[in-house]
Structures are given as C-alpha cells and as structure tokens.
Design goal:
heterodimer; B: 107 residues
C-alpha cells in the first residue's frame, strides 16, 4: 500500500526541542518531493517547505525559515520536521504530503498525505 | 507571495444541488492550481490538479475550471459525503499557498 505514516502526537513545553517524522512506503520515496503543511487549531493550511529526498534539496517558506528544519533520510524513507525551541504558537497539526517527481522541481500538487501529527506546546 | 482568495467562506447547499466554489489568485498561476477536500479529523484529499484534471478515484461530479487568476470548483450534485471544507492551492511559485477555505454545509 502506498502511504505516508507520521509519528504520534506530542505534548511539549515551551523551549523544548522536537523532531517529528513521516515514513513513506509502497513507492520510491527518494524520487518524490515531500512537503510539510501546518494547520493551526480551527484554521487553514500553510505550506512550510519541501524536501527532495533523492538529494536533500530543501526549500522553505520564508515565514518558517529559521523556525524549523526540514530534512530527509532516503535510506529509511523518512522525512523530518524539527524545532530547536518550541513556542506555544507552534501548537498545530502538521501534515507531510507527497508532491511530484524530480522533474516537477517541487512545483506540484500533493496526492498523498500523512495522517497528521498533533503537536501541543503548553507550560 | 501569491495570495489565494476563496469565496464564499461558507456555502449552504441542499443535497442533490450544484455547488460552485471560487478561487482567485493575486497574480497569474497559469494552470498550476489544485483543489483539496478536508473533512473533520482527516487529512486533506486531492480532488483536482492542473486546474481541471481529476485526481485518481475522484468522482465525475467534481470538476475544475479556469486559468490565470480565476478558478472554479463545481460539484454537480452534492452527496452527503461532500459536506466538508475545500481549499485551493497554487503551485506555480514558491512558497506554495492555499486559500483560506470554503466550508460547504447542509442547507
């Protein structure tokens, strides 16, 4: 089965670090872009950035640049989203989503989504 | 950044009726426009890409049209499972951007 499976919900305190994951299976993970999308409580979708696991090409939304780190390990078909110091405003559901192949250069729609990871940051 | 504006914010429709959702881009995105459906507690699902191409497994009652800055998603005859929030997304420029969503509710 073609799927993206994300790590489980997290509850953290402000200032703590966190890394969540997104594991692809059933397709050639290295050959498709993976995007991260934020959805704050009761709000819409925000594109955070994108990674091409084949050669770890990464582009960030300027709104999130410096706030998070996106990475991927193609050897284990997993993409990551990391925070060095969480804030209460990072409370949200985070989705990973599969984009196009290398020839799309990352400019594509997202046809496969993970189930989402709820991150709650509270003192 | 390209701003995507969806209208209306909420659309009240009776089952079996047609629903028409609009999406406007602040500058041309060509045909690099997708539509997604999101139900409560679920991840978004791709409905339309390339402005008018249905994604795999999407029923024919969903259709997309438009190019440049004006786009439309039409649901020809609303079924009970179609009541959800719909988002448009442009992928012509980085950062990719989403509209704020249109919530389709039962009339």
């Amino acid at each position: 089965e073609v799927q993206l499976v994300q790590s489980g919900a997290e509850v953290k305190k402000p200032g703590e670090s966190l890394k969540i994951s997104c594991k692809g299976s059933g397709y050639s993970f290295s050959n498709y872009w993976i995007a991260w999308v934020r959805q704050m409580p009761g709000k819409g979708l925000e594109w955070m950035g994108i990674v091409y696991p084949g050669y770890s090409d990464i582009t960030y939304n300027p709104s999130f640049q410096g706030q998070v780190t996106i990475s991927a390990d193609r050897s284990i078909s997993t993409a990551y989203l990391r925070w060095g110091s969480l804030k209460a405003s990072d409370t949200a559901i985070y989705y990973c989503a599969r984009g196009g192949s290398s020839t799309s250069y990352g400019f594509s729609s997202y046809d496969l989504w993970g189930q989402g990871t709820l991150v709650t940051v509270s003192s | 950044e390209i701003v995507m504006t969806q209208s209306p914010a909420t659309l009240s429709v009776s089952p079996g009726e047609r629903a028409t959702l609009s999406c406007r881009a602040s500058q041309s995105v060509g045909s690099n426009l997708a539509w997604y459906q999101q139900k409560p507690g679920q991840a978004p699902r791709l409905l339309i890409h390339g402005a008018s191409t249905r994604a795999t497994g999407i029923p024919a009652r969903f259709s997309g049209s438009g190019s440049g800055t004006e786009f439309t998603l039409t649901i020809s005859s609303l079924q009970s499972e179609d009541f959800a929030v719909y988002y448009c997304q442009q992928y012509n420029n980085w950062p990719a951007t989403f509209g704020q969503g249109t919530k389709v509710v039962i009339k």
